[in-house]
Amino acid sequence: MVQAPDRVMRKDSDGASVDGVPKSTNNIIMVRSLTEFRAGVTLGAGANGRVYKATHMPTGRNLAIKVVNVYDDAKRVQLLKELETLSTHVSRFLVRFFGAFYDGSGAVHIALEYMDRGSLEDTVRKFGPVPEPVMNHIAVHCLRGLRFLHRHHVLHRDFKTANILLSRALCRAKLSDFGLARDLQAGVSRADTFVGTVAYMSPERLKGETYTYAGDVWGLGVSLVECALGRYPFERPSSFFDYIDAAVNKPVLGPGMATGLSADARDFIAKCTHVDPKRRPTAAELLQHPWITKRPLDDRVFFKWLDEVSSSTRSTPKR
């Protein structure tokens, strides 16, 4: 990584402020080794490793530490891609990276920004539907993150609610988990590798066709419907072919679903989840959609909701 070629040199988001969202200068932490951490509770675990909370002793700041086994070939490939993307693409809408350290026993510990409200997936699962003004706020932040990645020819390829993290401290949603990201260099506009989470794959990806940045836009649309309904939008398919049938032949937001949504919100989601990828707008174009431009962001609304979903007194809805 130190001797990376020019094509992977660090790229920063533009300007000192993006539509009123300043750079998080207080998030800059210099981490030199694992000995600077005091390990805390486990935040989550999955097929790709575990994540634990840690305190950076020199600064007193909380970080999230992702642990990956480097002896697993597939995980090692994803690890290298994630480290490359994190270290070379810096945006206030992507989770910040502070360094990666080998522990001497077969695992790499990746030091990441601690997002104090966890994943959007966990929040929806626990608290149910997300109010439309909050959905709008999350959509704007996700679109800015996607626009930044796509401008620099990077596909996320695993866009889903589990990879959208929330921070009350920053009043922000950020994209995370870039282990499946793919660079599309000049002259290469499509990818054809079958990777990602099937439930959030676009129809063209499910059918094994080549795909573009429109696949990430589809993932955003499905994620927003999940927020609106408080659940995954399709009936849980029993086979891979059921996923294809649902994505191709059934509207993601069908009649009678989330009836309280505004017409602009429904149109926005319909455009994101159009079966034909050529008919899906880009992230930059979606930022000009009426659902975005006609709703000035009010951080107080988002902040209040982030407080509400962290309250231990709020009951979990029946599912």
From TrEMBL:
The keyword ATP-binding applies. One of its GO terms (molecular function) is ATP binding. It comes from Porphyra umbilicalis. It catalyses: L-threonyl-[protein] + ATP = O-phospho-L-threonyl-[protein] + ADP + H(+); L-seryl-[protein] + ATP = O-phospho-L-seryl-[protein] + ADP + H(+); L-tyrosyl-[protein] + ATP = O-phospho-L-tyrosyl-[protein] + ADP + H(+). ATP binds at K66. This is mitogen-activated protein kinase kinase. Its EC number is 2.7.12.2. Residues 37-292 form the Protein kinase domain. Gene3D superfamilies: Phosphorylase Kinase, domain 1, Transferase(Phosphotransferase) domain 1. The keyword Transmembrane does not apply. Keywords: ATP-binding, Kinase, Nucleotide-binding, Serine/threonine-protein kinase, Transferase. It comes from the Eukaryota. Belongs to the protein kinase superfamily. STE Ser/Thr protein kinase family. MAP kinase kinase subfamily. Pfam families: Pkinase. Coiled coil: none annotated. Residues 1-20 are annotated as: Disordered.
